[in-house]
Amino acid sequence: xxxxxxxxLLLVTVVTIxxxxxxxxxxxxxxxxxxxxxxxxxxxxxxxxxxPTTYSFMDASGNSTVSYSGQTExxxxxSEMVVLMKTGTSTVLDAQxxxxxxxxxxxxxxxxxxFTSTKQxxxxxxxxxxxxxxxxxxxxxxxxxxxxxxxxDGVAGTLSSGSSTYLFDENGVEHVQVIExxxxxxxxxxxxxxVYFGSGKMDVDNTTAVDVAAxxxxxxxxxxxxxxxxxxxxxxxFPSTVPDRFWGKYCNNQDAxxxxxxxxxxxxxxxxxAISANELTDRDxxxxxxxxxxxxxxxxxxxxxxxGAIANFGTDDAKFLHELSEAYAFAWNLRYAPVETRRMxxxxxxxxxxxxxxxxxxxxxxxxxxxxxxxxAIY
Length: 379
Fold this sequence. Notes:
The protein has one domain (67-379). The protein is 48% helix and 5% strand. It is built from 13 helices and six strands. It has helices spanning 69-86, 95-102, 130-144, 175-196, 199-202, 220-232, 246-253, 255-258, 260-276, 280-312, 317-332, 346-354, 365-378, and strands at residues 11-13, 16-17, 45-46, 50-52, 157-161, 164-168. The strands form three sheets. Strands 1-4 form a two-stranded antiparallel sheet.
């Protein structure tokens, strides 16, 4: 069995972990069907291996066994797409440019990325929804043609709130948000929770380094777990450092309610350490906890944005439609939760999304509260 050695400066030797809330130390200690999260839950779990305080793992010779550069490149690709999409408030966008970035044509988004990469977002997107996101790109480009208009019911254009300006289509949908947050689910969450935590990526070799001669000191299983961590998109010392984008940002947003920062990072650390120690039962427990918590982050963030839309209803159309578009995307992302752990089945999810009207201008406070209550009833 591989020997795991980590710098003593980064180690916490975990023998017994106690007094943890829903933590990843023992996800079976908590009833995940409880509607309210409590801080008085306790759990204990004995471990015979060490768990680091940062996402840093090495082999017996001191070589790093962590690698997820492909995931970081995809996060960077989406970041640059978002920057470009937001210029639609003042310039006319070309949908084909966005699609070229989505599929990373010619290794640099057809000249639209600031870097080259062999990776792409499209081929990692939930397959059924690849075309849907390209349709959203078309809608965004069409709306940008009318960016000089003041958006109103039936009229595409822009609206401002304070120093922020947003572009909406004729139905009040801000496609920048739907594309960005939607791809967070269709690519990042889906790949991590369904693909890399699935049996096809976890039931693999965990004894031999992939290619020592090429500097690949990790086993296949270690690498796949790292790639799931890469899609979470946080720094190796999270939550000491909190990112300003994607799932790390929204995990931090929900930390006060879910204890999600510690829950998620501790699970990633413990799960990876368990793999290196070949303790696969522990690995599976952390995967269970990560799947459940990540889904909850999306649900709670949807509710947050619904609350924002309610707060701005009838007083600030720009903020109202902006937050409603974000709420829609985070609610949509519940679609990608793993079948094994999902709290909302496909029929329930379809019913939830049907509560959002095609025309966001027509939504009422009753509708907004019904959407919130639907999510609350399950989460």
